[in-house]
Amino acid sequence: MPEHPDLSAKNTADFDLNDWLAYIEALHPKDIEMGLGRVNQVKDRLNLKINFPIITVAGTNGKGSTCAMLESIYHAAGYSVASYSSPHLLRYSERIRVASEEISDVDLILAFQAIEAARQDIQLTYFEYGTLAAMWHFCAAKVDIAILEVGLGGRLDAVNVFEPSCAIVTSVDLDHMDFLGNTRELIGAEKAGVFRKGISAICGELNPPQSLVDSAQKIGAALKLIDRDFRFELQENDWCFRSDNYLLDSIPMPALMGDFQLYNASCVIAAIVDLQDKLPLREEAIEKGLLSVRLHGRYQYLSSKPDVILDVAHNPHAAKSLASNLKNTSTSGKTFAVFAMLADKDIAGVVNAIADEVDEWYVSGISHIRGAAGVQIKEMILSELPGASIRLFHDVANAYAEACIDANENDRIIILGSFFTVAEVMRALQTATLKNGINKNGAR
């Protein structure tokens, strides 16, 4: 394998994409440093010409689904849609898309070069560098709209240096507590930081923290709460959206699985209605976009006999949604959980949230500096579920391979716990390295 250039020398002229990614990862001593000062300085130096509306999406869970629906609907309406999301599963380019296409290596390198020239001696984190590169590319591509997913929190996230035309908070629950606070009130205030005076502030949380409501009112944001200002109603085979000034009936169910997706879809339609004067679209685009939306790793059904499902659920709130999906699509056989998590996540909370739907645990560590050891996860499961059936493996790919061997055609396998867990299985499938006669779809 060829060695990377001397990354410390800043001689980036001959960097390929892998060199660039290694370089920007090493630039800052911390993975995460909250604050907007450094990002704002570089943004000002870039002198970006942002002539398009921005929808900013924050939330503990549901951000990815909400962004994917918005992207799909505006694309179906014929607009040039930019989308920025994180993290990625297999390729960094997944994070930056225009017209539903991932950014090319050439364009990504051009964007990184632009950020490098502008930042000079300012240290940027990996996420900050990538966020600025994404927006530079969107400006160069002259898109019609950009959908930006907040990485962490909201108020101090790099995405928040860009002024939205509409801001969405999908949900508020406990996650990233070292950075955002250890209560829903503290976290709600951080997520409300994406709101702006006079701009639609849409919230899909049924029981929003008072701090979020107070923050919106204090700055004069046009706060719209689900079940107060807009709502959805389930019908026999479809659903409808209602607000004070808009009704959309007989909407097809989103292609993304789970009744909770209707909360996300309702936030999406509320945002679309509010932006009709800037980006008008017909109701047919909403229907087409919801039917065609795809999102890897969110209750993603891979194959049958046995059923194989990928879900990046990495906190109790997301695990409860996953458990609901599993319960609503019950199987006549067993459920095998291929399970690995990061050490700084609420492992016990996820275990308890999903426990009733799991028969066998196939546990491993994750190949990441923050990954919990498989032994640690096993001990945590046993402390919460004494007598649980657990097998320990060296890595996620081996755990998945063994689950495929052990599962019968009436069983199902769920891969969960982290983006890294899902990515390791996807990578193994992609490179066809699984043993014991398992094909690329994961079936025996």
What are the key terms here?
single chain, 444 residues, alpha/beta, UDP-N-acetylmuramoyl-L-alanine:D-glutamate ligase, Protein-Tyrosine Phosphatase, Chain A, 2 domains, eight-stranded mixed beta sheet, six-stranded mixed beta sheet, 17% strand, disordered N terminus, disordered C terminus
Question: Can you describe this structure?
Answer:
The chain has 444 residues and is α/β, with parallel strands linked by helices. The protein is built from 15 helices and 17 strands. It folds into two domains: 7-292, 3-Layer(aba) Sandwich (UDP-N-acetylmuramoyl-L-alanine:D-glutamate ligase); 300-430, Protein-Tyrosine Phosphatase, Chain A, CATH 3.90.190. It has helices at residues 17-26, 37-46, 63-76, 105-119, 126-141, 177-180, 184-191, 210-219, 261-274, 283-292, 316-328, 347-354, 374-384, 396-406, 419-430; strands spanning 54-58, 81-84, 96-98, 101-102, 145-149, 166-169, 200-203, 222-225, 230-234, 239-243, 246-251, 300-303, 307-310, 335-339, 360-364, 390-393, 412-416. Strands 4-3-2-5-1-6-7-8 form an eight-stranded mixed beta sheet, with helices on both faces. It has a six-stranded mixed beta sheet with strand order 12-13-17-14-15-16, sandwiched between helices. A three-stranded antiparallel beta sheet has the order 9-10-11, with helices on one face. It is globular, with a radius of gyration of 22 Å. Residues 1-9, 432-436 and 438-444 have low confidence and may be disordered.
